[in-house]
Design brief:
CATH class: Alpha Beta
Radius of gyration: 16 Å
CATH topology: 60s Ribosomal Protein L30, Chain: A
Mean pLDDT: 81
Number of strands: 5
CATH architecture: 2-Layer Sandwich
Low-confidence stretches: 1-9, 31-35, 182-188
Structural class: alpha+beta
Helix content: 25-40%
Strand content: 15-25%
């Protein structure tokens, strides 16, 4: 079954070599030379701060970007696109980080397990990504910096044959990557 995903202008995804939309997007957003060194330092600092500010989330440096994974239960309840009360605190902290580091963009990717139809899961993952993006935008982040996509059940990180595996597959991942503008600004 082919799935058509529409992204906002300027939003690009790439999962070719990695099998992961988040990792592929970060790797595809390379910045070279001196600018890469500056951005790399900023990304190191931002990743450290996010790891501290987002307990329960996984924060990893990937190439010249950052991958943040919010496991199921941290942002949304089962089969829901409504933010949980604790999610607001996590996303508020995430938005504050984006405000501090204005030369970045994000790709918010929603995922589900394989329970239910593929079409339903794509829709649910789209709604979850959109819900997270809407909250972050309401915290003062320019919507042009926020891209979102739902991947449904297409990028599992664990088996869907067990309750634990399905729980791990229900998640929201966020790629943070540098924009073409580099140098000055906050976070140096």
């Amino acid at each position: 079954m082919a799935v058509l995903v529409q992204l906002a202008p300027g939003c690009a995804t790439n999962k070719a070599a990695t099998g992961s939309t988040v990792r592929g997007t970060i790797i595809g957003a390379r910045v070279g030379g001196v600018a890469g060194g500056i951005i790399g330092h900023q990304m190191d600092k931002q990743a450290q701060e996010l790891a501290y500010d987002l307990p329960g989330a996984t924060v990893q440096r990937v190439g010249e970007g950052i991958a943040v994974t919010f496991p199921e239960g941290l942002l949304f309840g089962f089969d829901s696109d409504q933010l949980m009360p604790a999610a607001r605190h996590h996303l508020r902290s995430f938005a504050a980080s984006l405000q501090k580091y204005p030369n970045t963009r994000t790709l918010i990717v929603g995922h589900t397990d394989s329970q239910g139809s593929a079409a339903y899961n794509i829709d649910l993952s789209d709604r979850r990504a959109s819900s997270a993006a809407s909250f972050i935008a309401a915290e003062g982040i320019d919507r042009a910096r926020l891209c979102m996509v739902g991947r449904g059940e297409t990028e599992p990180i664990a088996t869907n044959a067990s309750d634990e595996g399905r729980r791990q597959n229900r998640r929201v991942e966020i790629a943070i990557y540098a924009t073409a503008a580099t140098g000055g600004g906050s976070g140096n």
